[in-house]
Design goal:
The complex is a heterodimer of chains A (about 450) and B (about 450). Chain A is mainly α. Chain A has 24 helices and no strands. The termini of chain A are far apart. Chain B has one domain. In chain B, α5 packs parallel to α16 (about 280-295) and α20 (about 350-365) runs antiparallel to α24. The chains are: A mainly alpha (about 450), B mainly alpha (about 450). Chains A and B meet through α3, α4, α5, α16 and α17 of A and α3, α4, α5, α16 and α17 of B.
């Protein structure tokens, strides 16, 4: 541990010195070095990464790299409040039995075949990740997969991998799928409708291609499953055993959630109609719904806030955003933007590819929020240089989400899913086993997005 | 419940219309009306007060009374982060056994007499709440009081009341005692040193006057305790039974906490030395220390942040501050300030009295943070009218802390302590049993503060 701590300090100091030598001012170099501390902190000390964000932010203040007012301004509190609201709503849905009901729906499908199962879990994983968030989605889909695989006595690992891959792809489909979605939406001014019109179809294409690949990749497992299904005579037993009829509370819960989603998807129109600022309705809606839920379920209000909201992660995000804001405040990201624009010789097609691949490869190792937080001010600076940046936002979004598929630590959903597999079935997936399939899917989906962003004028 | 809800809506709407009629514009009336929703929400629906601030803030945004930038600016994230850091530190102290160690120090006092007992629990309650926070300190003081009273077989209630009253008085003495301390310090630009020089002696005077009053008030109980002490032959048994020597971990924790307090007390000098903005060090010190603590105790880091930090309350504060900021942003508090100044006939002494007594009486019913959050922008507006602000800030601080003694719902410490009493001893405090002694102490101490603030030039 001491060794890793030294590595962290060493790399950050090196970043500072290199920064100074390549012509950054001392404040700019400090902000880069401190951001390095946070990156290395998440990489080397995942279990207590918040510590490094605390210490780093303190150093930024003491060295006068940023002042308290600007720190607060760049902390993106509105995004944090949005996530708090969504987490309360999801906590409530969990409570009302929404996910258990969904699982029972999957278990009770008639005339199950292996291929049908593959398609079904991929599509449901992706759609659920779009509507709630990837971590919640994966937890419940895995419950369904383990149930079915146990029933037919097949190895759940391949299906688990399939559903995780689909979840990560699906999380790029809307603003809600992934924290980076809402961050990008608030900073770029893209609306929920933009996401639905542009990101969602591209996500679907990626998803279907992935399903086709996986169908071939896991053909042996699928044949085995088909075999077992024939032996056991389909899942008639399961259908009879499990039946969770939606009760009244669940129906009300679904209605609230549906209304929220509906209102969120119309947010741009409402803002125009009432003459509100950009994204006001988008950010306010989760607060309204969760406020309503807390008034209705007032006995559990405190529990929703304390148990269902992941404060540890949100506090980390808050400080991380503030540090990324410092990069912008000191002008370090302007310098980066210039360097990047020189690197690509001001060619915006090249630039799109650069952003897409950097963020894909970066987020295969790093937490994608860390990566996106650093990239956003750079893209904002690129706009000032005179690039058309819409394609860049999409490149960042898809890179951040699809890169998570490449390695087994690429996204939170992967880590959570593999954790459950280890705990429940005592089975491990080796790094290489994941890397092979993850790499193929990651690279092919990123290629699709690359083509889409460059060739289709729609994304410019 | 429905009735209370209707009352809430009726009063808020009524206030809105009323302020519209006395000449406020639409935004100002909306801000006032929403703030009164939050005030009444804490009063009627303590268990889910957060629901009301969620909805209220949403309404403010949707009616364009405020915008997202202002919500973030006024949310006082610096204060929230300060409190997060302090809560982590106090969590460490709790875990290291600091409070258990203090409790046994009290239990092991030699030659115990009733008066000595009253003096000791009052002084320790006050000092502990000055350093940590009132809620934490009262939890452990209650444990000590119960232990002693059980041993000598006397009624614990009078001593519990004494300890709570002392806790509330003590919380006015430094920046750390009460959330309103740090709130006032950041908004008024007062330093920790100012608090030590000006608030601490005044709180000490109030404390000794209260002890004097309480010794007379509870002379019968004390006579009984003295009798029991003679009968049982002092607490020799307790002294022998209990002895917790401070272990290594406790010593390190104490050293960290001590160093933090030391740096906080020197924050103004350090800021001057390094040429930093006012209160930068004050706000950042807890972050720095708690960051260090989380490296040391990295296995528990996540627990400190999730269990020891009161997220429910902090989230409420954050949105409450944002709403109070809206009062300022719309100019509603300027109008209020003008009316108050007119009422006071532009005399500072009268104004001090008005603010002191309003905040005393207000915080005897309301959460003092709600009250202070609303008052701060009003006091800031007085600056434009060339008033001397310093005594007004002290009046607000002492009013907010001392008013909590008057009723049994006046401060969080009261509610927590009486909750423990009910749970452990199954005794329910009646409103009037508290009110008699609380009102006497509250009025006595407020009068002391009033005289000091008006007549001593030191506070101007």
């Amino acid at each position: 541990m001491i060794k890793r701590l030294f590595i962290l300090i060493f790399i950050s100091l090196a970043a500072y010195i290199i920064g100074i030598h390549t012509g950054l001012s001392s404040h700019q170099a400090t902000s880069v070095a401190i951001f390095c501390v946070s990156i290395m902190g998440t990489l080397l000390f995942w279990t207590f990464r918040l510590t490094f964000a605390f210490l780093g932010t303190s150093i930024l203040l003491i060295t006068q790299t940023i002042d308290v007012d600007n720190l607060i301004k760049s902390s993106s509190l509105e995004v944090i409040l949005f996530l708090v609201g969504m987490m309360v709503i999801v906590g409530f849905l969990k409570d009302a039995g929404f996910f258990a009901w969904l699982v029972s729906l999957i278990l009770r499908i008639r005339n199950l075949t292996a291929e049908k199962f593959l398609i079904l879990i991929s599509v449901i994983s992706a759609l659920l990740a779009c509507a709630v968030d990837e971590v919640t989605a994966i937890i419940f889909i895995i419950a369904a997969i383990l149930e079915i695989c146990d029933y037919f006595e097949v190895n759940p690992a391949p299906f688990l991998i399939i559903s995780v891959l689909a979840t990560n792809i699906g999380s790029s489909g809307t603003v809600l799928g992934n924290p980076i979605g809402i961050i990008i939406a608030t900073k770029s001014g893209l609306t929920f409708e933009d996401f639905l019109v542009k990101a969602f179809p591209l996500m679907l294409v990626c998803l279907f291609v992935t399903i086709a690949i996986l169908n071939i990749w896991f053909r042996k497992t699928l044949i085995e499953l088909d075999h077992k299904i024939k032996e056991f005579g389909a899942n008639d037993m399961l259908i009879k055993l499990i039946s969770v009829p939606p009760e009244r509370e669940l129906k009300i819960g679904l209605a609230i959630f549906g209304a929220t989603l509906c209102a969120i998807s119309l947010h741009r129109r409402m803002e125009l109609f009432w003459g509100l600022q950009h994204n006001t309705v988008l950010l306010v809606l989760p607060l309204i719904s969760s406020g309503g839920i807390m008034a209705w379920k007032w006995k559990k209000a405190r529990e929703y806030i304390e148990k269902d909201v992941d404060w540890w992660t949100l506090l980390f995000f808050l400080l991380l955003f503030a540090q990324a804001g410092t990069l912008k405040f000191t002008g370090a990201t302007d310098v980066f933007a210039q360097k990047i624009s020189m690197l690509v010789r001001s060619n915006s097609t090249l630039l799109t590819g650069f952003v897409l691949w950097t963020s894909t490869i970066g987020s295969s190792i790093l937490d994608n929020v860390v990566l996106v937080a650093a990239f956003i001010p750079i893209i904002q600076s690129l706009q000032e240089i005179g690039f058309n940046i819409q394609a860049l936002w999409w490149a960042l979004l898809f890179g951040g989400c699809l890169g998570g598929n490449i390695t087994m630590i690429g996204s939170t959903a992967n880590i959570v899913a593999l954790g459950i597999l280890e705990k429940e079935r005592n089975a491990k997936v080796s790094f290489l086993r994941w890397l092979k399939v993850g790499f193929v899917v990651g690279v092919i989906t990123t290629l699709i997005v690359w083509l889409g962003l460059i060739v289709l004028p729609f994304y410019k | 419940m429905l009735k209370k809800f209707i009352i809430l809506v009726a009063i808020s709407l009524g206030l809105g219309f009323l302020s519209r009629h006395v000449g406020l514009n639409f935004n100002q009336s909306t801000a006032i009306s929403i703030f009164s929703v939050s005030v009444l929400g804490t009063l009627f629906f303590w268990d889910f007060r957060l629901g009301f601030v969620f909805l209220g803030t949403s309404v403010l945004l949707m009616t364009r009374t405020t915008n997202i930038e202002n919500v973030i600016k006024f949310a006082s994230l610096d204060v929230i982060l300060f409190l997060v850091g302090m809560m982590v530190l106090v969590g460490l102290l709790k875990e290291a056994g600091f409070f258990a160690w203090i409790v046994q120090l009290i239990l092991r006092i030699r030659n115990m007499t009733a008066v000595k007992f009253v003096v000791i629990i009052s002084v320790i309650s006050a000092l502990l709440s000055t350093m940590t926070s009132e809620v934490v300190s009262i939890i452990f003081m209650v444990a000590a009081v119960f232990e002693i009273c059980d041993y000598f077989e006397v009624d614990a209630v009078p001593y519990l009341i004494i300890s709570i009253l002392a806790t509330n008085i003590g919380s006015a003495a430094t920046v750390l005692g009460n959330p309103i301390g740090i709130l006032i310090a950041t908004k008024a630009g007062l330093t920790f040193e100012d608090f030590i020089i000006k608030a601490f002696p005044l709180a000490a005077v109030c404390l000794f006057a209260s002890i004097f009053l309480l010794v007379i008030w509870y002379r019968k109980t004390n006579a009984e305790l003295d009798k029991h002490i003679k009968e049982l032959g002092a607490n020799e048994m307790l002294i022998k039974l209990i002895s917790i020597p401070p272990d290594k971990e406790l010593k390190i924790s104490l050293a960290i906490f001590g160093a933090t307090l030391f740096c906080i007390s020197l924050h103004h000098r350090l800021e001057l030395l390094w040429n930093l903005e006012p209160n930068t060090i004050l706000l950042m010190m807890p972050l720095l220390s708690s960051g260090a603590v989380m490296i040391w105790k990295w296995r528990r880091a996540r627990e400190y942040v999730e269990k020891d930090v009161e997220w429910w309350t902090l989230l409420f504060f954050m949105l409450l501050f944002a709403q109070a900021g809206t009062l300022k942003y719309t100019g509603a508090t300027d109008v209020l300030a003008q009316k108050l100044a007119g009422l006071a006939g532009n005399s500072v002494s009268v104004l001090i009295g008005i603010i002191l007594w309003i905040s005393t009486i207000g915080s005897s019913i309301l959460d003092n943070v709600v009250l202070v959050a609303a008052f701060i922008p009003v006091i800031q507006s007085f600056q434009n009218m060339n008033f001397d602000l310093q005594p007004l800030w002290w009046a607000l601080l002492f009013g907010g802390c001392l008013g909590g003694n008057i009723t049994l719902v006046g401060s969080t410490a009261n509610i927590v302590a009486l909750g423990i009493l009910e749970k452990e001893k199954n005794i329910r405090m009646t409103f009037f049993r508290w009110f008699g002694v609380g009102l006497s102490v509250g009025i006595l101490t407020t009068v002391i503060v009033w005289i000091a603030l008006v007549f001593l030039p030191f506070y101007h």
